[in-house]
């Protein structure tokens, strides 16, 4: 069983159908699809495949630096944000780390690979699956070498309180704790600046970003890491294997951040569909729903006798079960927000499942 969403082929085989027949709500990918600007650029520059990419990816790093008003030396691009999670852990070599649970599985896997001892900070339904002031006192007491924090969180889609987030940044700075903040989904929040403007003030702050979800290029794989610690970025670049980013992923990073019409269209789609889908899910009394900020919604099935993922699979709809997230159960799920038509099919299928359950 995959630890991630998007395992459509596996699920299609399970019910004896073609993967194309399944609507995939398990992977949080922009339903607008790859930007036309990138499609045109790839077709026009197919010959890029005939040459090695620049091993330093100078044009890519320059484009990312322009987008974030920083130096190319502040940035390391990678084969999706996942490569960079492993890179920063390998660089830091932490002996102890703190993870907020539930959270993205790759932080734990990267830390385990490095032989790091992990302390879990459990978030529960009682506290709304959000950190609070208690986290500051736990950091003060345990003083881990590093803390991973996702803004917004995956799988809940929730953003921490802005004042608390700033207090966490300050606390980690004072205690010399390396803070790795995963902003993989923050582009879906049009008014969220993220922490990149503060890199110069906090040299042990590492910010992970992804272009895979927002720009619908999961098959290309592209993410990047930002830090004010130039020596750290330089060393990570030296330690990595060469050419981990393919020519078309590099091309994507050079052009898509300038595609303002696509970015605006995405924010308009999400504003409409996020509100609609959340309201419709809330009308289903068999579900408890959390109001997230990103392009997915976290929920709990209140009828434990219904196994929701296979039940919806019979309707050719795949959702992400969250049982393998520490702190969650087989009744917790995450659904992507998709097109209006797909979202309507999800609601229709859910109503049918619960009416027969």
Defining key terms:
357 residues, alpha/beta, seven-stranded mixed beta sheet, four-stranded antiparallel beta sheet, 12 helices, 13 strands
Overview of this protein structure:
The structure is a single chain. The protein is globular. Helix 5 links the parallel strand 3 (96-101) and strand 4. The relative contact order is 0.17. It is α/β, with parallel strands linked by helices. The mean pLDDT is 95. The strands form three sheets. The protein has a seven-stranded mixed β-sheet with strand order 2-8-7-6-5-3-4, with helices on both faces. The chain is built from twelve helices and 13 strands. Its cofactor is pyridoxal 5'-phosphate. Its EC number is 4.1.1.81. Residues 21-350 form the Aminotransferase class I/classII large domain. It is an enzyme of class 4 (lyase). GO terms for molecular function: threonine-phosphate decarboxylase activity.
- Show unreliable segments: none
- Rg to the nearest angstrom? 20 Å
Supply the helix-strand structural class: alpha/beta
Please provide the ordered H/E string of secondary-structure elements: HEHHEHEHEHEHEEEHHHEEHEEEH
Beta-strand level of the residues, as a percent range? 15-25%
Shape: globular
Biggest sheet: strands side by side, in what order?
2-8-7-6-5-3-4
User: Mean pLDDT across all residues, rounded?
Assistant: 95
Q: What kind of sheet is the major sheet?
A: 7 strands, mixed
Condensed summary:
This protein has 357 residues and is of the alpha/beta class.
Reconstruct the topology from this structure.
Elements (H helix, E strand, L loop, with lengths): L7 H8 L7 E2 L11 H9 L13 H11 L6 E4 L1 H13 L3 E6 L3 H9 L3 E6 L11 H9 L3 E5 L11 H14 L2 E5 L22 E6 L12 E5 L2 H10 L7 H9 L4 H23 L4 E3 L6 E6 L6 H6 L3 E2 L1 E2 L10 E5 L3 H17 L1
Parallel strand pairs: 1-11, 3-4, 3-5, 5-6, 6-7
Antiparallel strand pairs: 2-8, 7-8, 9-10, 10-13, 12-13
Helix pairs in contact: 2-9, 3-9, 4-5, 4-8, 6-7, 10-12
Catalytic activity: O-phospho-L-threonine + H(+) = (R)-1-aminopropan-2-yl phosphate + CO2
Pfam family, one: Aminotran_1_2
Enzyme class: lyase
